[in-house]
Design a protein that fits this description.
The complex is a heterodimer of chains A (274) and B (292). With 274 residues, chain A is an all-alpha fold. Chain A is built from 13 helices and no strands. In chain B, α3 packs across α14, α8 runs antiparallel to α11 and α11 packs antiparallel against α14. The chains are: A mainly alpha (274), B mainly alpha (292).
Chain lengths: 274, 292
């Protein structure tokens, strides 16, 4: 009996290592080839490079204009995250605490947006009308709008679990409603703020559709669109394309490894409460 | 105390304002335009009633083909992701498996990458002559298995589905792990004492008690599958021919051809369909859930 369990466990461990390999290998192929010469990377395989060509990265950064697109990506993601956090936590707090008919309606009205398809042409009309098309601030506001529904949904669920007694005590102590929110409630929202920050950061960083439609100046492009363009131009230099893919992925991978707990918690709780 | 005073409604104005203008309003405008012949060739806008919807559902059969492809994509990815995700989740809660956290981190990691990046990675890996997959198969003397993965009509749809599963199955696994962990251990122990084997316990205990998580996963998968765009756009852009075209790549095509009215009609149909299907799924699957 013991031997059977033991061999079963070995099979299970081997199996899962095999599965992880399937998920791991594509990234490894890209990484190894990003360090090769153009000739070596003519065919993508896992053979190690003769000499490690870190210079590929330097070349990509210069020819792909990665510094400016990195800064654009950072601006859109960080700006978007801050704006989303400010307005959705405050809104979710009021909607969750004071469940009047109107507030319930507002909640469902906004959460409906999770399933709504984006009508790009109609949105373009709106962007033109508000003079936000082809502007950086327009990108930030647009990303904020698109991410409000799911962020509200997650924050609303979390705030429901914070005891109301706190509010009453604070009001009795003479807090105004604004003080109550920023001094008492906001600090308690740290876990959900971390979750929202990480999820929204990754979502905005990874997007390439919005700039594809609403930014025509390449100086305002984020990294994703820059890498897509680069792929089209340098398709015969796999080493450079691979280096560009690695550079574009590194920021989200770092955020993922640091904030893994919040991502998984957020995605699970956000979905389970639905 | 007055709730409206403690919880002032103007706290919601920021999000209400931005959401209404940049999400709701375009949606509304879109539905309005779906009843018109709005296009980029003429400045005139005529109200044509349900004509666009008729074209999609009865006119050119290519639209029905796109809808069929979308449904096929959705069903296949939903079933395969749920099955693989379930098996992976069962493995991941087994205490005898080593390095579970590392495996989970690796399997979930494609989920955090951009669709664009995943698309570019696989366009390189699946490249017919220079890609990693085919060159590896040839090196192993399995060259006859090498295919033009993304470029042939027979394999493109299959490849797109495989890449999509590779990207998304980690998320499904993680949701199911959380569901499995919330099932009290005592049920399994009692059943084991009663002599129920592994598979009987899975069918009679695990799956019924996991129904809430399975509902969530199904709704997530279906609403995602019906709306799929990014990964197909980057991998094949709907080609070769029409082989991997789905509703949203067709909408994109209509828009780039300047037929805005028809495009928005397709978009609106999809929205209606997603709303209906999520509603019935949540209702139907929740009924089957067991309380404990």
């Amino acid at each position: 009996m013991k031997i059977i369990t033991k061999s079963k466990n070995i099979v299970l461990n081997v199996l899962i290592v095999g599965i992880s390999t399937i998920f791991f290998t594509p990234g490894l192929v890209i990484f190894i080839n990003s360090l090769k010469t153009k000739q070596e990377a003519r065919i993508l395989n896992l053979s190690l490079p003769e000499a490690i060509k870190v210079i590929n990265y330097q070349e990509v950064i210069e020819r792909g204009k990665l510094i400016s697109s990195f800064l654009n990506s950072a601006l859109y993601s960080i700006g978007g995250v801050i704006l989303i956090l400010c307005i959705t936590t405050a809104g979710a707090y009021v909607l969750s605490r004071n469940k009047t008919k109107l507030n319930q309606f507002i909640y469902f009205f906004i959460v409906l947006g999770i399933a709504m398809p984006i009508n790009y042409i109609a949105l373009m009309k709106v962007m033109q009308f508000t003079n936000l098309i082809n502007t950086r601030i327009g990108m930030i506001i647009l990303y904020t709008g698109l991410n409000i529904p799911i962020s509200l949904f997650i924050a609303y669920g979390f705030i429901g679990n914070i005891p109301r007694e706190l509010d009453e005590a604070a009001i009795l102590d003479g807090c105004s409603s604004i003080e109550l929110f920023y001094k008492i409630i906001f600090p308690l929202l740290k876990p959900v703020i971390a979750t929202l920050a990480v999820l929204n950061f990754m979502g905005i960083w990874n997007d390439f559709i919005m700039p594809l439609y609403y930014l025509n100046a390449s100086s305002k492009w984020p990294m994703t669109l820059a890498v897509y363009n680069f792929f089209g131009m340098f398709q015969h230099e796999w080493n450079l394309v691979c280096a560009d893919i690695v550079l574009t992925s590194i920021p989200v991978l770092i955020v993922y490894l640091l904030g893994q707990k919040y991502i998984v918690d957020g995605m699970v709780s956000g979905s389970v409460k639905g | 105390m007055n709730n409206n005073k403690i919880y002032p409604i103007y706290f919601t104005f920021g999000m209400l304002f931005i959401y209404s203008i940049f999400v709701f309003l375009p949606g509304l405008i879109g539905i309005f335009y779906s009843f018109t012949d709005w296009n980029s060739f003429s400045d005139e806008l005529n109200f044509i009633g349900l004509e666009n919807y008729k074209t999609i559902l009865k006119g050119d059969p290519i639209y029905l083909f796109y809808i069929g492809n979308t449904v096929k994509f959705t069903l296949l990815t939903t079933i395969i992701k749920t099955l693989i995700g379930f098996v992976l989740a069962l493995v991941m809660i087994n205490k005898n498996v080593r390095f579970r956290n590392i495996h989970r981190t690796i399997i979930f990691s494609p989920q955090v990458l951009s669709f664009l990046i995943v698309g570019l990675i696989f366009r390189s890996i699946l490249h017919p002559s220079k890609g990693f997959l085919n060159t590896t198969l040839e090196a192993m003397n399995l060259g006859f298995l090498a295919k033009n993965w993304l470029g042939s009509i027979d394999w493109a749809f299959f490849s797109v589905i495989a890449v999509d599963i590779w990207k998304g199955v980690g998320y499904i696994m993680v949701v199911l792990i959380a569901g499995l962990n919330s099932i009290p251990q005592i049920y399994h122990e009692v059943a084991q004492i009663d002599g129920a084997g592994f598979f009987r316990r899975i069918i009679h205990i695990t799956i019924p008690l996991l129904m809430p998580s399975i509902t969530v996963v199904t709704v997530l998968n279906i609403t995602y599958g019906l709306r799929v765009f990014d990964s197909i756009y980057v991998l094949t852009n709907g080609g070769p021919g029409y082989a991997t075209g789905v509703v949203n790549t067709a909408v994109f095509k209509e828009f780039s051809k300047g037929r805005f009215g028809l495009g928005t009609a397709m978009s609106s149909l999809l929205f209606l369909f997603i709303l209906l299907i999520s509603y019935f799924l949540i209702k139907g699957l929740n009924k089957k859930a067991v309380e404990y």
